Amino acid sequence: MAEIKDTGKVWIKGSVGPVHAVRIDDKIFATGKKEDQSIELWIKNNGLCLDLHDSKKGERTARFIPLNAKQTLAGTLFNGFEKTRHADVLIVASDGEQTEEISIAGKEYQEGGFSNLDSQTFWQTIWINKD
To answer: Which residue range forms the structural domain that includes residue 27?
Structure first.
C-alpha cells in the first residue's frame, strides 16, 4: 500500500524557487502548495488527495494527483526532507494532465462556510457538487 514517507521542498529545473513536495514510496510529487496556504494530504483511491487552504484570501482547493502520474519534471531535493537522501530526481507535476482540481473562492467560499470545514468534509462537499 502506498504511503507518504517524507516531505520537503524541491528545486525544479528552470523555476525561480523551491516548491513543496512529498515522497510517496520512491516517487516525488510536487503539491502546488503556495507559501500562505495550509495543506492537508492523504492517499485514497490510488491518488494523492490535497486540501490547499488560504483562509486569509478566502480560497480553498481540492486537488487529486493519481499515484501513477508520470514524472515529467527534472529537479533536485532542496530542503526539509529528513528521510530521503539528497539527489537529483524526476518529479510529478502538481498541474499535470491527469491532475484534477476544484477551487472555491470569494462569495461562494464565504457563503458556503468552506473556511470552517475539516479536510475530509471539504473534499466530500466539493467533489459531490462538482457538476
So the answer is: 4-128
State phi, psi for 121 to the nearest 5 degrees.
Answer: -65, -45
H or E stretch covering 109: helix 106-111
pTM equals 0.93
Structural domains of the chain, count: 1
Tens of pLDDT, residues 52-76: 999 999 999 999 999 999 999 999 9
Instruction: Work out whether strand 19-24 and strand 27-30 pair parallel, antiparallel, or are unpaired.
Output: antiparallel
112-127 tens-digit pLDDT: 999 999 999 999 999 8
